[in-house]
Amino acid sequence: MKKLALALLAFLAVQPVLMAADPITLTLYSSRKAHLIEPVLELYTKQTGVRFNLHTGKPGPILERLAAAGKNGGADILLTVDAGNLWHAAERGLLVPVDSEALVQSVPAALRDPENRWFGLSKRARTLAYNTEKISPDDLSSYEDLADPKWKGRLCLRTSKKVYNQSLVATLIAHHGEEVTEETVKGWVANLAAEPFSNDTKALQAVAMGQCDVTIVNTYYYGRLMRKEPDLKLALFWPNQDSQGVHVNISGGGLLALSKHPQEAQAFLEWLAQPEAQGLFAELNLEYPVRKDIPPAPEVQAWGEFQGDSLNLAEAGRLQAEAVRLMDRAGYR
Ligand code: FE
Hints:
By secondary structure, the chain is α/β, with parallel strands linked by helices. The chain contains 14 helices and 10 strands. The longest helix is centred in the N-terminal third of the chain and has 19 residues. It starts with a helix and ends with a helix. It binds fe (iii) ion. The site of fe (iii) ion (FE) has 2 residues, from loops. Fe (iii) ion binds next to loops.
């Protein structure tokens, strides 16, 4: 009898703990590759017990799938790359505003939606990369300068179909207007040494092989390639340091309108913006933390400091359709 009473007492003592620890599962749609996000999710699960149901894919199909999902779709969080994609998700009504002092404090204003529907969680610069045997940094100055006839047959670019270039051109429109930007893009096209490449790595390899002197890429692609082939004659250059600054873009996230766990989802987004997660999240993809108080990994720091464009990235979304039409008119494929 005494044994039974003890067992009952033990059961009663343990029960509330079991109930408190009742783990919920957040469903996360991510266009970031699984191996770049899983270590962050595992850390959160370890700290909180919250589990994840992770779906990865390309940004376009993810947005389509979320838009088609009914209220029973049960999706909580969207993580994707480029403010252009986040802006589209917000415009389509897939994301809801998050009222969070923690996120507003952690994420600089230029890197989040003015209506708080998406927040930058890591930063990448879309900058110049050049062949160190063919040219010197003194030859380079700005995105706009790459339209000068002196670069004829010396420029390589990734395709205009990629959102990264659409966002870059959108910010040029925001700074200089449509007419000036169209002249710039026409100049780029006239200077191409090869047809636009399908990805940043191929453009970098073309520069390394001497097919062209300079290209425009996201910093982490340079980092990944140099990890594999450290002897390549490639270096980064920070353009527009006397004008608008380097085009900075983000990977970021938001709370899905479909979410049935909005509080838990918001808590996770807030955690991602905290120092510990920031370092890990950025480092996994050789990116920059969005927080100013967290330094990037040493490998990334070695690329040097730069002045980034302080334009709010919502502009990249707002002007994206205009940028696409402009690039089409300019013959940029
Ligand atoms: Fe990328």
